[in-house]
Amino acid sequence: MTTSPAFADGHGHHEHEAEAAEDGVPGPEQDPYIWLEEARSEEALAWVRAENERTLAHMEADPRFEQLKNDALEILDSEDRIPFVSFRPDGLYNFWQDKENPKGLLRRTTLESYQTDDPEWEIILDVDALATAEGMEWVYKGSSCLPPALNRCMIALSDGGEDATILREFDTSSKEFVEDGFVLDQKSQGGIQWVDEDTMLVSRNFSEELQTESEYPYTTRIWTRGASIEDAPEIFRGEKTDVSSGAYLLRDNDATVHARIAYRSVSFHEVEYYVEKDGEWLRLDIPLKTSPYGIVDGHILYSTDVDWEVDGQTFPADSLIAVDLEEWKADPNGAKKTLVWAPAERQTKRGGAITGNSLFVGMLDNVVGKVVQFDFEDGAWVSKQVDLPDNATVGIAASSSETDQIMFTVTDFLNPTTLYYSDGGTPLALKQSPSRFDKAGMEVEQHEATSADGTKISYFIVKPEGMEMNGTTATLMTGYGGFQVPRLPGYLGTTGKLWLENGGAYVLANLRGGGEFGPGWHQTAIRENKQRTWDDFIAVGQDLVDKGFTSPQHLGIQGGSQGGLLVGTAFTQRPDLFGGAIVQIPLFDMLRYHLIGRGASWIGEYGDPRIPEQRAWIEGYSPYQKIVEGVDYPTPFLWASTADDRTHPAHARKGAAKLKELGQPYFYFEDMTGGHSGGVDNEQRAKLQALQYVYLMQQLMDSGDGE
User: Fold this and answer.
1) Which of 451, 551, 561, 601 is catalytic?
2) 561 tagged catalytic
3) Could you say which of 248, 347, 374, 481 would form a disulfide bridge with 359 (CB–CB 3.0 to 4.6 Å)?
4) Is residue 3's pLDDT more than 50?
5) What is the pLDDT of residue 679?
6) pLDDT tens figures, 52-62
7) Is 245 a catalytic residue?
8) In whole angstroms, how far apart are CA 617 and each of 20, 98, 305, 612?
9) What value does the mean pLDDT take over residues 27-41?
10) Does the entry feature the keyword Mitochondrion, yes or no (predicted)?
């Protein structure tokens, strides 16, 4: 299944010295903290170290810190967690990190061995050993392998966790890097796709000139073994104004190549597709929010995020549409289109997999999961629901493109993940994660809050059974609300151990801008309507207080990336509603976000601050500018990662610096090794967890109940 690429190094303050408010965008004259946008300047890193020392001295002095860290580390390092795998012809592959292997092992086993309680693993690549041998902080970022054997791979390695990688050819049969093999040793975004053993398509940042404003590639070259990448001929070029562009091969599950496809992501959510026909690139006549989904049973499938009117019929948003593959190859735009699936009310699809014989698609029905199997039989598409437990979050964990083998995950807030396996029949439970916390006396409820414009917003609360509705329960609320990403019930693991077991409640809000109820749920809260996402989150917080679940001094909020922006808008717009706010790896200065890290790629979600009308939308909520004198904000905890080249630490740094300038209490911590998800090994991840939960206990549990 191929989709266009998704999803912040910064602009240094020295090169901006003379810049004023160009196009309405604040420069140094309006913003004294632009120097913090230089990720690794000595001045910025000295500031970071001082902040880290202050925060660590405070948090680590709390008697609860060590226990929380140890509890988190025990869960993260546990040997009895499910080792999730991917299917390859030579076995089941797993990437594993633990106490002895903090950077991780790529390893494989057989299906027979995997079905036992203690599989025998063969180590393919030891990332810790490689990092030690080369004196690098290597982080394994996956591989791209040549089908159908999948034993010749380009391994992606990142320096310290940033998104940019180097790529090296690796042979999984010999378990060694290939001598004089393909190597792309310039750190870059983008990737490769194998054409055959001696040829690949390469979409990388070949130079500053050949990367977009969003710092992604927009050209693709065809590279032959033995040739220099500089001499590799270009086969497709998008525009510098694109988010990203490139070309790839359309293969079926037998690894047969049927076409070359190219794409131009003209915005984050809008993509133009092209197919190579008679040596030319022919644009596919499909909506900008419609994309090829894969090849199934001799058909190419499309997925659309908008209503698609074509040939006198309308395919509704979120549906799947099929075209006979041979017809499509002969006439890509004229071939007849047929509906495979369309969503009912409150339904949406999320993720799919194509096995040797079928298409499996994950679905959400009022935020409850199921999986549906599709096959083309006797001239028609037939579907059936896969027999998996109800009232849970269900996902597709792995699938084989050659056989009927597929694995599913089933989970909810209180019950650990179970892994199911099927080889064409009814799925059987194969493995289950152990319980990480005592769920006795805890219950889950689903409620609705009413947002500012009257829209009903669903949320889940996990709380002690029979909890007194007197507003005294410390409650942690989280959400996301962006990029059509759904936030779903999933086992609470460390949150259960570190927060619920200690008497707290947990709330997950399903906000507009996310993907819980389909593309429309997302599209109604982007750009000029982004404030709806913030309104939804605030409405859930207010509902929790109104119903007596909690009160402002005991209500904390937490979110990362777009969710960090969400938390920033919430505590600046309603400082009276919250007692604490964890702002993780956030977007925060939305008037300069397009200049920081990969920010320009998200203009499709938020708008462009350089355009006065759009700047006005953003100025209405940008948290950095909303931190002003004379307001009593809850004490926030902002954290980021130095190596995050996606949202970039500048956002969190500048937020903390502004709070400091105004004499507002705050905490700041920067993980100086991890990437966009923070923490590259379990020790660091456990420390980050402990810092956050100590903070929440101090803010929400230690505050007493006297107003």
Assistant:
1) 561
2) yes
3) 374
4) no
5) 53
6) 999 999 999 99
7) no
8) 21, 45, 24, 9
9) 90
10) no
